[in-house]
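Per your request, structure below.
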């Protein structure tokens, strides 16, 4: 009797698994799924390189300095499509062409969607990548190359500092780009699978409520595309300012523009408790507003700023996805506007 029940249970599980698999295949090839869960995860303003041209990639870096605020114009650093970025794009294109890998990713994603957040799904896929062409990942991000990072900080390849703190480090791929310039690297992350990857890369994990009370001060803190995904962005900026090494400490901050703040809770996107509104319709106008009405009031001044694409590995439909980023290097100013009032 027990043997019969076990066989029945296995058969039912197999049928359910097969139905889910067929459903995922159907979703892959329907127009409804044409922009996929990854696109919904990144939320808005995704552009497919598959439909793009070389001219479009040039648009990723385009800025009209005359449209920036007067104080920002001399601080703008022109970036371009360099070898590091090309290498990431080439890798993304290769992965998007691995049919069975993408089928597997789609299947696992559909099974896990009701259970965990999209960020955790992307991380969970890393767990099982040994089963598929050995440690295949999906959803890794790219913000800047090594050369672009050095140019923003105005440092050379041999420049070294003591400590880096990367807030919301994800799987650590972007943190790895900065690694060569620091003796000690700390990172924060909320997703358990992503924490596993950070530990695997030998980064020192800190709790999201620990780093600002640890008493440590950091030469560089990176806050990359996190400001629009946290509950209290202004409070976060003030904590960062207090945690930088006085005078020499720098904040490397990336923000997706247009600025549209949401937080992911149980797979749903909600407005954060502290809704930061950034004024302006163009990239240049929003960069100026961020500088004057957000950073200055939080005790920062801009040292350099550039325009870069925020890239994400693609899927079966697009080789990769891109958002529009503004990347700043900020230093603590002597007095905040709030304290001077």
């Amino acid at each position: 009797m027990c043997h019969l029940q076990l066989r029945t249970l296995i058969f039912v599980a197999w049928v359910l698994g097969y139905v889910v698999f067929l459903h995922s295949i159907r979703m892959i090839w329907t127009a409804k799924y044409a922009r996929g869960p990854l696109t919904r995860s990144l939320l808005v303003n995704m552009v497919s390189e598959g439909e793009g041209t070389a001219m479009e990639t040039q648009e990723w870096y385009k800025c009209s300095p005359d449209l920036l605020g007067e104080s920002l114009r001399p601080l703008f650093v022109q970036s371009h499509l360099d070898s590091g970025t090309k290498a990431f794009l080439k890798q993304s294109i290769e992965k998007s062409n691995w049919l069975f890998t993408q089928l597997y990713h789609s299947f696992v994603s559909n099974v896990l969607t009701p259970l965990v957040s999209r960020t955790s799904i992307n991380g969970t896929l890393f767990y099982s990548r040994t089963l598929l062409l050995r440690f295949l990942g999906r959803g890794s991000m790219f913000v800047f190359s090594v050369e672009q990072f050095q140019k923003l900080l105005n440092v050379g390849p041999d420049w070294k500092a003591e400590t880096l703190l990367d807030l919301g480090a994800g799987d650590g791929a972007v943190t790895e780009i900065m690694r060569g310039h620091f003796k000690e690297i700390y990172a924060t992350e909320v997703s358990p699978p992503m924490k596993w990857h950070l530990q695997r890369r030998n980064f020192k994990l800190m709790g999201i409520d620990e780093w600002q009370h640890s008493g440590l001060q950091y030469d560089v803190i990176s806050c990359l595309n996190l400001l629009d995904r946290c509950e209290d962005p202004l409070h976060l900026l003030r904590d960062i300012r207090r945690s930088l090494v006085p005078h020499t400490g720098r904040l490397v901050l990336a923000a997706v523009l247009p600025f549209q703040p949401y937080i992911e809770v149980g797979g749903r996107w909600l407005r954060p408790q502290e809704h930061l509104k950034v004024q302006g319709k163009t990239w240049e106008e929003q960069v100026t507003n961020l500088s004057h009405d957000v950073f200055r009031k939080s005790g920062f001044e801009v040292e350099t700023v550039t325009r870069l694409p925020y890239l994400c590995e693609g899927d079966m439909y697009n080789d990769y996805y891109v958002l529009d980023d503004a990347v700043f290097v900020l230093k603590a100013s002597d007095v905040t506007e709030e304290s001077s009032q």
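The longest helix spans residues 2-28.

Regards,
D.
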